[in-house]
Each structure stands twice: as structure tokens, then as C-alpha cells.
């Protein structure tokens, strides 16, 4: 199983990227793990035309190839003003459901304070309609992110009980993401090889 992690802060060297790196290092169930930091790709905001994604200067074909290979995704967004990142929403608009449909996604919100719930609610409500990603019932909210998931020397141990719990929750969430990726692989196989009659008429959600 292959895992693709998307971090969507508009800043380089962000806390979202730090969380992505932590997740990448703690996903032993997946044989292949890759990370895309969206701010480094300079994607134009999509104009709704398929041709624009394939412009000679667009990095989208490279990103699309990695999406297509992935069996599961982790979508990480910072919370800015109670909202999910525009970069992540643009990414989700650009996703072709032939690449993403019926693939599981773990939603992760990152906050410098004690908030972080609003981006999860926003993504669940309106970000998965046409790309047909399947959000896991569980999600992660990384609160006070500057204080947690930081690099530890070999001799250091996590002693804060809240961070111990957070790391265990991340481990559980990734375990479940792998379980979903294996199960949904069978659905994707049947969707491709035993299609529902005229299923392309239902490529958009209601």
C-alpha cells in the first residue's frame, strides 16, 4: 500500500510540514510514503478547465501522477481564521475523481492554539463531493502544534502525558487508514473492472 501526504500551509518550513514529516516517519504499515508540500509547487488557482492543468508550466501532471499511485491520502491543513487552507481546497478541486474516487483520506488540522475543529468541519462538508475521496470517521487535530511532535534526541523521551496520548492517537489513525486502504482497494478494482451501467453519469455528487 502506498501513502501520499499533502501538507497545505502557504508558508515553507511550516508546522503543517513538520506534522507531515512526523506522520511519514511513523507509517510503518505502508510500503511507500511520499509527501507533497503544496506551497513549493506554485500551482495556479484552477479556472475550471481541464486543459489549464496540463499547461507546459503546470506542475499538476507530476502531482497527479503521485495521486494516481497512492492507495491512501493524508490531508493536512493549517487553521487560518477558522478556515482550511486555500491551497488544499484548490488541490481538491483539481483532483480528478478517476484518480481519487474511493480512496481513503485522513483529515488533519493544525492549530497554534486550542482551536482546529473548523477546518475539519469545512472539509467534511464541502471538499469531497466530486473527487469522491472517502474521509475516515476519525480525524486528527494537532493543537498547540509548536509544542508537540518536535524532534527528539536518541536519549530523550516524551514525558508530557498529553503528547504521549497524541502520538498514540496518530499511530491508531494511521493503522486504521491502512485498514481502509486495503478494503477500499477491492471496491476500486470492481469499480474499474465491473462498472455499474452508465456509472459515468454519476461522476458528480449531489
Automatic annotation (TrEMBL):
All residue ranges annotated as the NADPH-dependent FMN reductase-like domain in the record: 1-144
Any Pfam family the entry gives: FMN_red
Domain of life according to the entry: Bacteria
InterPro entries: Flavoprotein-like_sf, FMN_Rdtase-like_dom, NAD(P)H-dep_reductase
Key words, A-Z: Flavoprotein, FMN
Keyword presence, Nucleotidyltransferase: no
Protein name in the entry: NAD(P)H-dependent oxidoreductase
Species of origin: Shewanella eurypsychrophilus
Amino acid at each position: 500500500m502506498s501513502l501520499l501526504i499533502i501538507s497545505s500551509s502557504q508558508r515553507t518550513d511550516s508546522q503543517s510540514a513538520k506534522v507531515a514529516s512526523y506522520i511519514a516517519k511513523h507509517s510503518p504499515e505502508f510500503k511507500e510514503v511520499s509527501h507533497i508540500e503544496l506551497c513549493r509547487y506554485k500551482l495556479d488557482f484552477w479556472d475550471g478547465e481541464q486543459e489549464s492543468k496540463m499547461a507546459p508550466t503546470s506542475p499538476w501532471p507530476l502531482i497527479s501522477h503521485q495521486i494516481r499511485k497512492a492507495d491512501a491520502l493524508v490531508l493536512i491543513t493549517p487553521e487560518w481564521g477558522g478556515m482550511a487552507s486555500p491551497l488544499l481546497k484548490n488541490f481538491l478541486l483539481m483532483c480528478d475523481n478517476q484518480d481519487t474516487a474511493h480512496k481513503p483520506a485522513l483529515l488533519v488540522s493544525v492549530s497554534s492554539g486550542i482551536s482546529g475543529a473548523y477546518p475539519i468541519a469545512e472539509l467534511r462538508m464541502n471538499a469531497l463531493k466530486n473527487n469522491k475521496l472517502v474521509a475516515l470517521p476519525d480525524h486528527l487535530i494537532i493543537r498547540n502544534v509548536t509544542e508537540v511532535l518536535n524532534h527528539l534526541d536518541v536519549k530523550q523521551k516524551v514525558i508530557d502525558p498529553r503528547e504521549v496520548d497524541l502520538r498514540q492517537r496518530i499511530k491508531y489513525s494511521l493503522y486504521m487508514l491502512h485498514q481502509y486502504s486495503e478494503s477500499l482497494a477491492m471496491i476500486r478494482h470492481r469499480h474499474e473492472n465491473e462498472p455499474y451501467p452508465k456509472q459515468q453519469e454519476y461522476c458528480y455528487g449531489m
